[in-house]
Write a structure and sequence with these properties.
By secondary structure, the chain is an alpha+beta fold. The chain is about 45% helix and about 25% strand. It is built from 24 helices and 27 strands. It has an 8-stranded mixed barrel with strand order 18-19-21-22-23-24-25-26, surrounded by 5 helices. Strand 9 and strand 10 form a beta hairpin. The protein is elongated and about 135 Å long.
Length: about 700
């Protein structure tokens, strides 16, 4: 055998090995029929041996038609003819296995001339996984397109710094007619010339896109403008997405107009008194700190006026809280019209106001406060045909480089105001370095002495006010209230003596007096719990922090024989939040005794809802400031409704304070508040009278 024949045989042997061992299906077609195939073909088609496949036309191993609807026999002949004509032909095909399962393959036909004529070498590659991947990709693209087109958020695509596509939400948000009007535009074209920070929109837009391309994504706020020129805020999310044509940027806009308005409202409420619209104590003290810093750094002089209305309690008690609120609003307007625009006016709480007079000597400040005094003296408050004269006691304190700190400044101003009251009310007292301590003691120690005397002589008296169900339940509660008796037997409201008690740390002693005497009275009338489900007792912020409070409650509860479930303790939202850790501990311990807890004045704090989930109370008492105006004020109505819904969501029952008429009562029923308290339900009465009357009623009913 010569060398050429050996090489030919060796080559033929290698081809045969490649043919037989290939992982791809190999076949040979001669005269339109398979004349040979490898084992990979047999395995792919799930036949027993290759003899079952030979001498068959390709259509025999195929479904009757291909995906394009064409007959497999005719199309197979066409594919082979193309391969014979062009030398090779690659295409996709559907074959079927022995069990008739149809599957996709990629086919490569190659025409190979031979002594017996041209044969066709066939290679099949199963592309089931590739087709599945393509289907998944197609489905994913379809889902993305649906998301893109149907999204409520505006979505856009940026390529080369211009919008090339957007959804209808974008068109609607910008109030254009169609998306063609928005395409091929730079983001700055749809924006005002400058952004809120003063930067040029074109330059800043380029910077935002550059950041997204560099970091992969970028979130920021932006201002766009509608077709009519109206500017509105959006939150923008840019996401860089690599593609065959280069990196594009996927854009999502979310209109945050409502969020901005809500933020502005919250910011406003954080700094302003909701009743009068004036600055609140927080903002007043912030401004005072600035003036203190200014006076120390620049040796400037300012002044602080502390004002306390005279006769306000008369109006409030005679005509009710609505009249008192209107009086405070009108006084706020009078004060605002008396001072200059650069000065700071605030309601500090209750019927107390504060004024900061900037760059004002104490002599000039006296002229301003005299004008304030005259304006209020000339004012007459009229309510339902009744006219009242209102006065004001004013404490005036200079703010100089000698003023130590805000705490001392406020104490001196408060003391000066008390001194003005002691001098006969409706006058001004100017505090100086010489008399600030004297004034401080002169005003405050009088109340301290009276508080201690009342504790020693039991000159306090307990009152009660009903809390009635609005949801048809039989539950009925009573809040225990405190009054002080003066020498003539007249009752003094806690608002008069509690500020001094808080300032001199006497509130815990007062709370213990209330607990002790309330339990004593309830023990004397054991049948009262047939009428009332439970009685509420108020605890001060100072009492919450005392470790002995729990033991004191535990001992008195045990001694009285009253069940814990018949007692509910009330703590104000402000006290609870200020002493959150202590409040949680006390609530946890006392609830183990079976007692319940109520969070009073809820809604008055700046972070009410944020702290609520951390306070395991049973009842929310909605701040009366919101309740009393729900008929006329939509915002107050919404606030009460929101607090009620959140309370119910957290498993708490709600109590509305200051229910002063039937209209308020009806709106609360409409909202779904659980309980109501106020003059429309009942006025505060002596607790002994309530207990005796209820017990007598039980006795009569038994007869």
């Amino acid at each position: 055998m010569n060398s050429a024949e050996e090489k030919y045989r060796a080559l033929e042997e290698r081809y045969k090995t490649l043919f037989e061992k290939s992982a791809d299906a190999f076949l040979i077609i001669v005269n339109d029929k398979f004349v040979d195939c490898n084992m990979a073909t047999v395995e792919m088609l799930d036949y027993r041996n290759k003899q079952e496949l030979l001498n068959t036309h390709p259509s025999v191993l195929s479904p009757p038609t291909q995906p394009d609807g064409r007959d497999s026999f005719e199309k197979a002949n066409e594919m082979m003819a193309i391969a014979l004509d062009k030398g090779s032909h690659r295409f996709e095909w559907m074959h079927k296995r022995y069990n008739s399962e149809v599957f996709p393959v990629e086919v490569l036909l190659t025409a190979i001339p031979s002594d017996a004529g041209t044969m066709i070498h066939v290679v099949w590659r199963d592309i089931t996984d590739r087709k599945d991947a393509e289907k998944r990709l197609e489905a994913s693209e379809k889902r993305y397109k649906t998301l893109f087109d149907k999204s409520a958020d505006a979505m856009l695509i940026i390529v080369n710094d211009k919008f090339v596509d957007c959804n209808m939400a974008t068109v609607e948000m910008l109030d254009y007619r169609n998306k063609q009007e928005l395409l091929n535009t730079h983001p700055s074209v749809l924006s005002p010339p400058t952004q809120p920070d003063g930067r040029d929109s074109f330059e800043k837009a380029n910077e935002m896109m550059a950041i997204a391309l560099d970091k992969g994504s970028h979130r920021f706020e932006w201002e766009y403008k509608r077709y009519n020129g109206e500017v509105f805020p959006v939150e923008v999310l840019l996401t860089a997405i690599p593609s065959d044509a280069g990196t594009m940027i996927h854009v999502v806009w979310r209109d945050i107009t409502d969020r901005k308005k809500a933020h502005e409202l919250i910011t406003y409420q954080a700094k302003h008194d909701l009743l009068t619209g004036l600055n609140n104590r927080y903002e007043f003290e912030r401004s005072a700190r600035e003036l203190l810093s200014d006076s120390k750094n620049k040796d400037t002089e300012h002044a602080l006026c502390y004002l306390d209305l005279d006769q306000f309690k008369v109006v409030n008690d005679t005509c009710g809280h609505l009249a008192g609120d209107e009086l405070l609003r009108q006084i706020g307007k009078i004060l605002n019209n008396t001072i200059s625009a650069r000065d700071t006016l605030a309601r500090l709480g209750g019927d107390e106001f504060g004024v900061l007079l900037q760059y004002c000597s104490i002599r000039d400040a006296q002229r301003v406060t005299s004008s304030i005094l005259d304006a209020i003296q000339d004012y007459r408050f009229t309510w339902e045909g009744r006219t009242f004269r209102v006065g004001v006691s004013i404490g005036l304190v200079p703010i100089t480089s000698f003023t130590r700190n805000l705490t001392d400044l406020m104490k001196d101003a408060d003391a000066a105001c008390y001194t003005a009251k002691d001098k006969g009310r409706n006058c001004i007292h100017v505090s100086t370095l010489d008399d600030s301590d004297v004034a401080h003691h002169h005003g405050q120690l009088q109340w301290v002495n009276r508080i201690n005397d009342a504790l020693n002589s039991d000159s306090y008296e307990l009152f009660g006010q009903d809390i009635s169900s609005l949801n048809g339940s039989d539950e009925k509660y009573c809040e225990i209230l405190l009054r002080m008796k003066d020498a003539d037997g007249n009752m003094i409201s806690p608002g008069d003596f509690l500020p001094a008690a808080e300032r001199y740390n006497l509130t815990t002693q007062i709370d213990f007096w209330v607990i002790r005497n309330a339990f004593r009275l309830l023990k004397e009338f054991p049948s009262i719990f047939q009428v009332y489900t439970s009685f509420s007792i108020n605890l001060s912020g100072a009492c919450i922090t005392k470790p002995e409070t729990f033991e004191y409650i535990k001992e008195n509860l045990k001694e009285s024989g009253i069940k814990g479930e018949n007692i509910c303790f009330e703590i104000t939202e402000t006290a609870a939040i200020s002493n959150l850790v202590y409040a949680n501990e006390l609530i946890s311990y006392v609830k183990k005794l079976g007692c319940k807890f109520s969070l009073d004045d809820f809604g008055s704090g700046l972070s009410s809802f944020a702290y609520l989930k951390n306070l395991p109370v049973d009842y929310l008492k909605i701040d009366g400031l919101f309740v009393k105006n729900i008929v006329e004020d939509k915002i107050d109505f919404s606030m009460v409704k929101a607090i009620n819904e959140v309370g119910h969501l957290m498993g708490m029952q709600t109590i509305a304070e200051y229910v002063e008429n039937g209209s308020i009562y009806d709106r609360l029923c409409e909202i779904g508040v659980d309980f109501a308290q106020g003059f429309f339900i009942s006025k505060p009465e002596a607790l002994t009278g309530i207990l005796q009357a209820s017990t007598d009623s039980i006795r009569i009913n038994r007869l």
